[in-house]
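Support reply, case 0932

Customer input (verbatim):
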Amino acid sequence: MTVYIDCTNLIEKTNFSNYNSTMFTQNKCLVHYCRNLALSTIDENGEISDDKNYCLEHIPDPGKAKEDIYNYIRTHEKIIGLNACGLIFSDIDFTNKKFYGCNFTNCTFVNITSHNAVMRLCIFDFAIFKECNMIKSNTLFSSFSGATFTHTLFTSSEIIQDNFNGIKSYQSSFDDSDLFNSRFINADLVNTSFKNCNLKRTLFYGIKKENVSFKMSNTREALFNSSGSAITLEFGNSIVDGEIQ
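Our regenerated output:
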């Protein structure tokens, strides 16, 4: 049975039709045998163009391509349709930035500050996050599948209908966050905290856990196995007793 969910009111009253055609453009690398996605082309005016390009591996001047993308993010509050697959972002401030339809697959983020950032329909699959602070972020319909988080904070965030399937999380925190209808299927969670979170319809099928806490979260409304059971005795029976040892 197909279920349709009307999420119109969750998209921050955003009219995507007003954005340019670069959003969701997934150009392939110009090398004919390469299946990698091309990096976004930044024109002479510092804006994203529709011109085709190479991937990070094949681009003739990777240094310039990287710097063009870094500068684009620094100089724009709203980033739409950026393809930055494979880049390393270090010591960059994403605070108050708004990302729409961007692709950061296989990127590495080190010591990133990203308070109050907004992300819509963005892809961070297989990305690596180290020492990142994403407090009070607002993320919707985005994917972090296969990503690795180390010493990363998502505390006090709205993380709605996002994909964290297969992630590896070490000494990281989602405390005080709304994780409504997000998925952590087959995630590997170590020293990771989900205290005081909204876990309604959040999926934790097949997770591996070590020192994970769900204290004060509504674990009864989350799903921890594919049979449809909301909770097992391992997690406690009280809505405030979600501690995992």
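We compared this against your earlier run and they match. Two observations from our side: Residues 1-14, 16-22, 231-245 have pLDDT under 50 and may be disordered. The two ends are 37 Å apart (CA to CA). Please reopen the case if you see a mismatch on your end.
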